[in-house]
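Quick bug: tRNA(Ile)-lysidine/2-thiocytidine synthase N-terminal domain-containing protein output formatted oddly.
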Amino acid sequence: MKTFNVDISKSLNKKFKSKLLAKFIKAIDEYRLIQAGDKICVAMSGGKDSLLLAMLFEEYKRHYRNDVEIVYLMMNSGFKDEFLKNHFSLLDRIGIEQITIDSKVYEIANQMNPQAPCFLCARMRRGFLYSKAKELGCNKLALGHHFDDVIETTLMNIFYAGSFKTMLPKVKSRNYEGLELIRPMYLIKEHDVKKFMDYHQLIVSHKGCLFQERDNETKRQEMKELISKLRKVYKNIDINIFRSAENVNMDAILGYIKDEEKYSYLDFYDEDEQ
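Here's what came back:
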């Protein structure tokens, strides 16, 4: 059994506590993400975010909550050998044991849609993780989405989907009864994740996916660049984007969707005069 890295544990409780561990715990408490007796499957992608998520869970379990069970799961969907070698080396340094299950998701997605396999691949990977988490007896699946992912998703929906919809801190699975997706890094900013990884010289390989080399100019990257530019003009722009999803004024919107049914403000307009 591996032992969690002492230096990493110390830095999470001191140098990076306010930016990482405290926000991790705040999200768990504020959004009621974890309860006693939970068995949580932490999805490991090989990236910096899921690695930090695993480290935060190790610290949380050891010092804050020992009445939950944590398992770390990676779906090897066809990662490059050098990517996996680097990832396993990082796990050894950190002191985390991971379950690795091979699949052919990359191969299947590319065969079915060779021009644009990413959307299909993402859906297949999510389904695989839900299925395996259920097999492992877990009732929670934790993903490493952070604050920046949330606000980028909000803007992507506005700009490209014509809807106001954000990424929620927890969602109940529709296809896997009793399983809930949670995002405990919901309040953690990406630049603080990078600072932590750099501080400990945890260098993550960015070329695990075979499709990444085709086109790195994604819509999400456009949002990152836009927010970065806006932040130079107004430093709290990211916080205001985030807060907009919790301060929706239902008296001042044209319409909304609830339980897949669409409503217009005109449906209730004349009721105010009665």
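Actually, after a second look the formatting is fine. Strands lie at 39-44, 69-76, 99-102, 140-142, 170-172, 180-182, 255-258, 261-264. Closing.
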